[in-house]
Amino acid sequence: MIPVSVGEGKHIALFGLGESGLATARALVAGGADVTCWDDNPESVAVAAREGLATRDLRELNWRMIDSLILAPGVPLTHPRPHWSVELAHAAGVETIGDIELFCRERRATCAVAPLIAITGTNGKSTTTALIAHILREAGRDVQLGGNIGTPILALDPPSPSRVHVIECSSYQIDLAPSLDPSIGVLLNLSPDHLDRHGTMENYAAIKARLLEGSDVAICGVDDSPSRAIGERLKANGRRVVTISIRDRGGPDLSEAPALRGDHNRQNALAAFAACRATGLSDEEIASGLRSFPGLAHRMQIIGRLGNTVFVNDSKATNADAADKSMASFEPIYWIAGGLPKEGGIAALAPRFNRVAKAYLIGEAAPYFAATLGDAVPYEISGTLDVAVRHAAHDAARSTAAEPVVLLAPAAASFDQFRNFEKRGEAFVNEVMALKGVENAFA
Q1: Which residues line the annotated binding site for ATP?
Q2: What main location does UniProt list (predicted)?
Q3: Given 3.40.630.30, 3.40.50.620, 3.90.190.20, 3.20.20.70, which CATH number is that of 301-440?
């Protein structure tokens, strides 16, 4: 935990008692703040009260006595309209900030030289964040990984000169961190997303740009026009900007990095390479980390091998657009697909069908996907994941290809047979590892 000493003696209202909200409340209390917590969910309030945190409906507070409102990132700040707690804070002239801002203030107050790498982007930020942390750890650095991925930032170990915090930042978190000032900031890409929370693409891009604007070293993807415009503006203002593009065939050799296939992962690797170089790592240290990176669970995760066959868990590919990335990265594919169908189904994947040796269809989507595949792809309706894994493994073993791939890329939600995509991915991993002779890909 990072006790937030900059909050000592202050009266803090905190709204939102999920994992990050509870971690923030604990850190503020540990630093000596007077914290009052609330949530619209009574069960969340009860959890906080059982921990001994002070809970009270924030509408009952005397807001003239409040120094700050700490807002959980999932609570609306501006759109579609500010949450009632935000309106109360605004009316009283009280600042509204989040846990990333508290970390930044604590870092400046206690150890301003502590390295902070912050990563954002519409797509790929989780993989890039995990990749940077992995490379640094493999090189012997003391690394703390968290933020929008895994552990809330204030539940990590405190800043120190020899400890690198590698933090994924969502647009919601950046919006609540007006003084975000990383040592190294990374913006991967921008495409329309979360516009219900930010109003317009221009506002969304402006929020993402703040992460680079406060960075000592700014690493900016330039393969989309909004990101490219941000990079050009920063350069024109005399800022130190490192640009990355998948069209630049220089940079790291990923031929021996099995978890980093595809153009989208090339962008992630280029960003990680630039960020780790900026920390002082050698090219060989970075290359070694790229080669050993196992990937994120359920995101094009190579989990095992059986003979020449590779098994890949992309359970997070819950729609056609997400599945397209993994299908573009492998061939031939023994494709396990299906679940709870989404609008549009798999029609958009037709250009990838020539990569599929056979499809194994599961869940409620099976008959709909079969109708789309038609005569273009051999398929069977396996029904359940266990059957699909066994049959796909059997067929792939008979392939004469150098590296056939059994790919779980469902292009559908999980809720017909599994609680979430994580449970579906875990089931796939278990079924694969139960096959006789399978070797863990990264053992």
Answers
A1: 121-127
A2: cytoplasm
A3: 3.90.190.20
Which architecture, in CATH terms, is 104-292?
3-Layer(aba) Sandwich (3.40)
Q: Provide the CA 180 distance to its chain's centre, in angstroms.
A: 19
Burial 209-240 (b: 16+ CB within 10 A, else e): bbbbbbbebbbbbbbeebbbebbeebeeeebe
What global pTM score does this model have? 0.84
Taking a C-beta distance cutoff of 8 angstroms, is the pair 218, 241 a contact?
yes
Note down pLDDT in tens along the chain; length 443 residues: 999 999 999 999 999 999 999 999 999 999 999 999 999 999 999 999 999 999 999 999 999 999 999 999 989 998 889 999 999 999 999 999 999 999 999 999 999 999 999 999 988 899 999 999 999 999 999 999 999 998 999 999 999 999 999 999 999 999 999 999 999 999 999 987 667 777 788 999 999 999 999 999 999 999 999 999 999 999 999 999 999 998 887 778 887 887 888 787 899 999 999 999 999 999 999 999 999 998 888 989 999 999 999 999 999 999 898 899 899 999 999 999 999 998 889 999 999 999 999 999 999 999 999 999 999 999 999 999 999 999 999 999 999 999 999 999 999 999 999 999 999 999 999 999 999 999 987 65
Q: Which fold has domain 5-97?
A: Rossmann fold (3.40.50)
Structural domain boundaries of the chain?
5-97, 104-292, 301-440
